[in-house]
Amino acid sequence: MAALAKNVESIHPALWLGSQLARGTDKIVDTGYAALSAELPGGGWPLSALVELLVQQPGVGEFRLLQPALQQVAKRPVALIQPPHTPNAQALAYLGLPVDKVLRIRAPKTADALWSAEQILRTGSCGALLLWQQHIRSDALRRLHLAAQSSDVLFLLMRPLACAADASPATLRLGLRPAAGGLVIDVIKRRGPTKDESLSVTLQPSPILLSPYGRIRRHSPAPTVARGVPSAVVA
Fold first, then answer.
1. How far apart are CA 88 and CA 95, in angstroms?
2. Which residue segment(s) compose the domain that 55 sits in?
3. Would you tell me how many other CB atoms lie within 10 Å of the CB of residue 124?
């Protein structure tokens, strides 16, 4: 088996055995959580790829999970397409994301949201793109997957956990469920062996970013929704 693994790697670096995690590339961003990174090919969030985060409900801790990675790519704008709630500028600052680097895009129709995401991926104008969608067709997923491969953007698609049973071309799919102090993460799909055991990740305390009822700290006044977060409306 060792000889076979060596031969496979010598044929092409993109080849990997199903019993092993795929070999890493230079196009990754550190997750900031060692336990999670150890379960991901390359040891981090892949760039130039479609990554799906399937959440039990919005606001379970997905932004705190992504905080270390978003800080690393925030030299370019971080685009939020159709977030479920209005982003809070005070919370963004608490997470280390400059408000002037966050772009909120409100799309009247699903087709507009998908078109916007595809353009951002093809131009590579942003360091990260977060897209929220309840339902998305398989052909639209394939278009986004292909567009992501032509960029170096950290692309994360947020969908309901119920979509875990749906087929997807995504390179990585994770299921996120809330737990005391953090998240329970299920590795639904990765380039490597299946993982039946759930992963527990403890998140650092921080405000609830995408909630109108968020608090910065216990007993502190409710943060006001900042009006300085730039936004774009797709006609």
1. 11
2. 26-233
3. 13
Contacts of 217 by beta carbon, 8 Å cutoff, 6+ apart:
207
Q: Are 104 and 231 in contact (CB under 8 A)?
A: yes
Burial environment of residue 31 by CB neighbours within 10 A (0 to 12, 13 to 18, 19 or more): buried
Q: What is the pLDDT of residues 86-107, one digit of tens each?
A: 888 888 888 888 889 999 999 9
Tokens standing for residue 115: 């078109």
136 domain residue, yes or no: yes
Q: Which residues contact 147 (CB under 8 A, 6 or more apart)?
A: 117, 118, 121, 122
Distance CA 109, CA 166 (A): 22
Contact between 128 and 153 (Cβ < 8 Å) = yes
Closest-CA residue to 176 (of 54, 65, 50, 52): 54
Task: Express each pLDDT in 60-83 by its tens digit.
Answer: 999 999 999 999 999 999 999 999
pTM for the predicted model, two decimal places: 0.80
Tell me the C-alpha distance between 48 and 146, whole Å. Answer: 9
Q: Which amino acid is at 34?
A: A
Are 95 and 209 within 8 A, CB to CB?
Answer: yes
Question: Is 211 a member of any domain?
Answer: yes
Q: Count the domains in the chain.
A: 1
Specify if 17 maps to a domain: no
Q: What is the CATH number of the domain that holds 119?
A: 3.40.50.300
Q: Is residue 195 part of a domain?
A: yes
